[in-house]
Amino acid sequence: MENPLAGRPQTRSLASDPFLELNDATVVLGDTRVLESLRLTVRDGEHTAVLGPNGAGKSTLMKLLALEIYPAARDDGTPVRIFGRDRWDVFELRSQMGIVSADVHDRFVHGNSNGAITGRDAVVSGFFATQGVFGHQAVTDRMRGAAADALDRMGVAHLAETPLDRMSTGEARRVLIARALVHNPKALVLDEPTRGLDVVSRYRFMERVRQVARDGTTLLLVTHYADEIIPEIGRVILLDRGRIAADGAKPAVLTAPLLSRVFGGPLTVSEDGGYYHFLVSRGAPPPRADALAP
Predict the structure, then answer these.
(1) Number of folded domains in the chain?
(2) pLDDT of residue 240
(3) Which of 132, 220, 242, 247 could lock 117 by a disulfide, CB 3.0 to 4.6 Å apart?
(4) What is the structure's pLDDT at 285?
(5) CATH no. for residue 79?
């Protein structure tokens, strides 16, 4: 594993418990080791991206964070800690760590047993960790006020009464970030957040994410698109077939040799205003694995 210098934390003191600690975390699904002995620490305030191609293990890592799956048990320690704890009630964790993904988006757009979900109900449901609001739930004025503030923060206050299935993809995704932020969590996890957005909508959406990072919420971005890695993110973890291929400061990890090896093709890398972009280099032969091996 290549290990360039780690990126610097951006917003919070290092005295608090780390946001995420993985200590030889392994996930086995069927006969396949999808994640293999991952070791990493993401500190509170350290905006970080996890980058990798399809099949790298990113989706499994997301499920691990969401407590949808669990790592293989170990006798010599705890494989996963979130904010210093290895045991969480999922509802309590949602108040500390918001999650927005394309899968969450699809579920909310499709509605629930009550029908379509409005922007306001989607955000209020963040207090209950449910898909929309149900009749047995006691919604308070404080919750409604917090939901209104969160919608306004993401620039979608005018969509409070609009069903998600009538919003554009970008609008619905911003409503779901408002839902994730309604608790004022310590961290926000984004899984390929601009999937389905056109180039202008992607830019506007990520500008909102940049403001969230500047406001002090720790950001963990999981993606296979380099141009989703906003300038506020200083650290990149490169994932390849369930293992960490590189982990460090953004300029040290987002290099043509490393990315070409992990993504399996000749890539060129450019940087503009803190954003990185990579393209397939036409006509160039793929890099030799032995020449690029650490």
Answers:
(1) 2
(2) 95
(3) 132
(4) 56
(5) 3.40.50.300
User: Are both 98 and 168 inside the same structural domain?
Assistant: yes
Task: Give the strand pairing for 80-82 and 20-29.
Answer: antiparallel
Answer for the pair 176, 108: CB distance below 8 angstroms, yes or no: yes
The answer to whether 86 touches 40, Cβ cutoff 8 Å, is no
Structure tokens at 193: 């957040």
Q: What DSSP letter does each residue of 29-85 carry, written as one string?
A: ETTEEEEEEEEEEE-TT--EEEE--TTSSHHHHHHHHTTSS-PPP-SSS-SEEETTB
DSSP one-letter code for 10: -
The per-residue pLDDT for 9 is 39
What is the average per-residue pLDDT within 139-145?
94
How high does pLDDT run on average in the chain?
Answer: 88
- Residue 199 falls inside a structural domain: no
By residue count, the chain amounts to: 294
Q: Is residue 64 part of a domain?
A: yes
Least confident of 55-59, 91-95, 279-283, 285-289: 285-289
What is the mean predicted confidence (pLDDT) over 142-150?
A: 95
Q: Is 276 helix (H, G, I), strand (E, B) or coil?
A: strand
Same domain, 180 and 190: no
Beta carbons of 63 and 154 less than 8 angstroms apart:
no
Is residue 290 domain-resident? Answer: no
Among 174, 172, 170, 192, smallest CA distance to 182 is for 174
Same domain as 171, residue 50: no
pLDDT tens-place string over residues 93-111: 888 999 998 888 999 999 8
What is the pLDDT confidence band of residue 87, given thresholds at 50, 70 and 90?
A: confident
Cα angle value 184/88/79 (rounded, 5°): 115
Residue 287: inside a domain: no
CB 234 within 8 A of CB 49: no
- Residue 48's domain comprises 17-83+186-194+215-281
- The reply to whether 51 and 111 lie within a common domain is no
